[in-house]
Design a protein that fits this description.
Family: Belongs to the adaptor complexes medium subunit family.
Shape: globular
Protein name: Intracellular protein transport-related protein
Membrane topology: Peripheral membrane protein
Radius of gyration: 27 Å
Structural class: alpha+beta
Keywords: Cell membrane, Coated pit, Endocytosis, Membrane, Protein transport, Transport
Helix content: 10-25%
Subcellular location: Cell membrane; Membrane, Coated pit
Length: 427
């Protein structure tokens, strides 16, 4: 797949060069330096010159470049480049010119293990750290023992996990984290609503446990172009991505996720939902301009989730006209403050209970201008985090751990829905 790999500095000097195939020569690096590094007009991360393609990413002050002569998968090449960045950071914290010069021997070792004849091999950080180490030299006996483990690790079915992991207390933590994206019109109709979700897991389990993870009974994986009737209470997921440890065959049959987890923290699943979204907050806005020098706001916020739950750090950013001179505001819950530098009223509510309602009223005084431009009225942005609530409706039905020693494990599941400036309401 990859014929050569290079690391350049900003001046175009080659810091690392590794040729995996004979179809390119080291002098190909001069082409990249002239055509990309010295050319300020280059914007694309892929440059094809004749039959040679250069895939590059820039991290800090270095360029990572993969060269290929064949019709390689672009997604796979970039996945390798960014995986190399993660591995480098795991070994020496920061990937820049200085760290590359200080660790060039280690980088060549890593490349020899990650790539074989241009094809990516094992790139699991935990596995690599077993036999590529920056520690002191081990005894010959210890090296032999590790060698036998390495052979099983590199060639076995679970390259992401060692078999000799031991914990005094066996625990598994599951976090379902969702980011809610909303764009609502001033009339209150939803223009766009979707959820970006991920299931994170921290597995502190001994041995090689078999985990079985069950989601909602009414779970639908909507395929592109599918026009099947939808149930109102069904949870529909699009674009599911799983960690390599998941056995996809069992998920297709009974929607259960079966896997042998890596040791420690990892992302088990990433998904997206675009239908049947439970919006955690509703906003009613009434903004008028009675005179040319005044704007009146009435913003009514209602928490639409269960009264037993609470939202934390609720923040509303309410835009004001550019020629605003002063704002007087009044709120029943939280604090509201006008920030002239950002032309917004920031309303902060540290804690808000489900089904609670609160209102902000404000008057904005405007400066008189000779050429008055119409106010564009950017949307109101709402930020929040609601624990034990999922906007998609996704729920974990069960989490079972099976291990041949038969130990008992403790399982914890937590839900979190949040917004990062992506929950917007027009007014």
């Amino acid at each position: 797949m990859i014929s050569a790999f290079f690391i350049f500095n900003q001046k175009g000097e080659v810091l690392i060069s590794r040729l995996f195939r004979t179809d390119v020569k080291r002098s190909i690096s001069d082409v990249f330096r002239i055509q990309v590094i010295s050319n300020a007009d280059v914007r694309s991360p892929i440059i094809t010159l004749g039959s040679t393609s250069f895939f590059h990413v820039r991290i800090n002050n270095v360029y990572l470049v993969a060269v290929t002569k064949c019709n390689a998968s672009a997604a796979l090449v970039f996945e390798f480049l960014y995986r190399f960045v993660q591995i480098s950071r795991a070994y020496f914290s920061k990937l820049d010119e200085e760290s590359v010069k200080n660790n060039f021997v280690l980088i060549y070792e890593l490349l020899d293990e990650i790539i074989d004849f241009g094809f990516p091999q094992n790139s699991e950080i935990d596995t690599l750290k077993m036999y590529i180490t920056t520690e002191s030299i081990k005894s010959e006996m210890a090296v032999r023992e590790d060698s036998s483990k390495i052979t099983i690790q590199a060639t076995g079915a679970t390259s992401w996990r060692r078999s000799d992991v031991k914990y005094r207390k066996n625990e598994a933590f599951v976090d379902v984290i969702e980011t809610v994206n909303l764009l609502m019109s001033k009339e209150g109709s939803v223009l766009r609503a979707d959820v970006d979700g991920q299931i994170l897991m921290r597995a502190y389990l001994s041995g090689t446990p078999e985990c079985k993870f069950g989601l909602n009974d009414k779970l639908v994986l909507q395929k592109r172009g599918e026009t099947a009737p939808r149930s109102e209470d069904a949870v529909e997921l699009d674009d599911c991505q799983f960690h390599q440890c998941v056995r996809l065959g069992k998920f297709d049959t009974d929607r259960s996720i079966s896997f042998i987890p890596p040791d420690g923290e990892f992302e088990l699943m990433r998904y997206r939902s675009t239908s049947n979204i439970n919006l955690p907050f509703r906003l009613q806005t009434h903004v008028t301009e009675p005179t040319k020098n005044r704007v009146e706001y009435t913003i009514h916020l209602r928490a639409a989730f269960d009264p037993k739950l609470n939202a934390n750090n609720v923040v509303l950013r309410i835009p004001t006209p550019l020629n605003t001179t002063n704002v007087s505001s009044k709120v029943g819950v939280g604090k509201a403050k006008y920030v002239p530098a950002e032309n917004v009223i920031i309303w902060k509510i540290p804690r808000m209970q489900g089904a609670q309602e609160c209102t902000l009223t404000a008057d904005a005084e405007l400066a008189t201008t000779t050429h008055r431009q119409p106010w564009s009225r950017p949307p109101i942005e709402v930020d929040f985090s609601v624990v034990m609530f999922t906007a998609s409706g996704l729920l974990v039905r069960f989490l079972k751990v099976f291990e041949k020693s038969g130990y008992q494990s403790v399982k914890w599941v937590r839900y979190l829905s949040k917004a990062n400036g992506s929950y917007q309401i027009r007014f």
